[in-house]
Amino acid sequence: MRTGWRVPAGLIGLSALPLVVGGVRLGELAGQRDADTLPLVLHIVGAMVFSLLGALQVASGVRRRWPGWHRVAGRVAVPGGLLAGGAGVWLGVAHAQGDGDGGLLGGFRVVFGGGMLVFLVLGFIAIRRRDLRRHRAWMMRGYAVGVGAGTQALLLIPYVAIAGNPVGVPRALVMGGAWVLNLVVAELAIRGQRRLVS
Predict the structure, then answer these.
(1) CB distance 141 to 119 below 8 Å
(2) CB neighbours of 101 closer than 8 A, spacing ≥ 6?
(3) Are the beta carbons of 47 and 21 closer than 8 angstroms?
(4) How many domains does the chain have?
(5) Which domain holds residue 128?
(6) Most Cβ neighbours (<10 Å): which of 19, 23, 44, 192?
(7) Do 181 and 144 form a contact (C-beta atoms < 8 A)?
(8) Which of these, 148, 37, 26, 153, lies nearest to 90 by C-alpha position?
(9) pLDDT digit string (tens) for 26-37?
């Protein structure tokens, strides 16, 4: 595998478990019509589109060789990300107290989902101004939040193996920590790109 495909392949791998779980969940939700179904379906479908197409967007070879595909895929990925983030905020508000995780996780969902929305909008504004550097930086931040479920799974699996299934504050801290970790990695990648350009 060429070096240019390692990062997209890794991002797709990171998203694999949430994609499978999301697909199973969509099957379970088929035919249900309660108040929670619509935002959950929008969140899952949006996240699936955003995580897969977003992973391919970071492949520099794709951007260089097929810029038209990059633009079209971006026009599909960004609405998927906006759906995922917006529905995530909706779910965070709706379930802040009622899901057994307490208000902390609901608050994290609102903050990170809202941040994802802002990052994607700023990335869109930047590309409309033809500011590629800012566009990439904002999109990387948005994508980092969007693939948080993959990092959450990676952190929860050893936690569950060692201490059992976390609930309440421990669960919220693991979930929030995954989003923070992804954003730190994104910031390091953005700074690395800036150094290469300088």
Answers:
(1) yes
(2) 95, 167, 168, 171, 172
(3) no
(4) 1
(5) 3-197
(6) 44
(7) no
(8) 37
(9) 999 888 887 678
